[in-house]
Amino acid sequence: REGNVIRVGRWNGLVSTSTSFYNGIWGYAVGDREYALQCHGQGFNIIDITDPTSPFRVQFVPMEGGGYWRDAATHHDAVTGKSYAYVGAQGNQGGGTNPNLFVFDLSNLSGD
Q1: Are the CB atoms for 63 and 103 separated by under 8 Å?
Q2: Are 37 and 59 in contact (CB under 8 A)?
Q3: How far is CA 33 from CA 54, 86, 94, in A?
Q4: Are strands 83-89 and 33-40 parallel, antiparallel or unpaired?
Q5: Distant-in-sequence, close-in-space partners of 65: CB < 8 Å, separation ≥ 6
Q6: How does strand 83-89 pair with strand 100-105?
Q7: Is pLDDT of 97 > 70?
Q8: CB count, 10 Å around CB of 105?
Q9: 13 near 44, Cβ under 8 Å?
Q10: How far is CA 42 from CA 3, 22, 32, 64, 96, in A?
Q11: Tell me, what DSSP letter sits at residue 94?
Q12: pLDDT band for position 16 (50/70/90)?
């Protein structure tokens, strides 16, 4: 127990380097499944947290450009029915070269 909350799970699949820091996270749910969209200096993790006691990585997407600071948000397009993750990567700080905005189509993530 940590104060008023209880930790029920943990996942750490990051190989630590000088540019590898977890630094942005967002939640996404589809059907009966829940995902954590986790950013770090090397890219973007999609982690299935449907069973919070046993989270696992579904996919890792390497992301070039930008520094090691990234953040994610999601958007659902009511017209097309598709869901997207927007991941922003900062520019020169943290050894980056160019700021980038990455757009990921989440529509193929399982909801079952």
Answers
A1: no
A2: no
A3: 13, 20, 34
A4: unpaired
A5: 89, 96, 97, 98, 99, 100
A6: antiparallel
A7: no
A8: 11
A9: no
A10: 32, 9, 29, 8, 11
A11: G
A12: low
Task: Please tell me the distance from the alpha carbon of residue 13 to that of residue 78, in angstroms, as a whole number.
Answer: 34
Q: For residues 109 and 76, what is the distance between their CA atoms, to the nearest angstrom? A: 13
Q: Are 70 and 49 spatial neighbours (Cβ–Cβ below 8 Å)?
A: no
- As given in the structure block, the two tokens for residue 33 are 């499944």
Cα 86 to Cα 73: distance, rounded to the nearest angstrom: 5
In 1-112, which ranges are E strands?
Answer: 22-30, 33-40, 43-48, 56-62, 70-76, 83-89, 100-105
Tell which wins on pLDDT, 40 or 15.
Answer: 40
Q: Hey, what amino acid is at 62?
A: P
Residue 58, token pair as written in the block: 């579904």
In the structure encoding, which two tokens stand for residue 51, read together? Answer: 């069973």
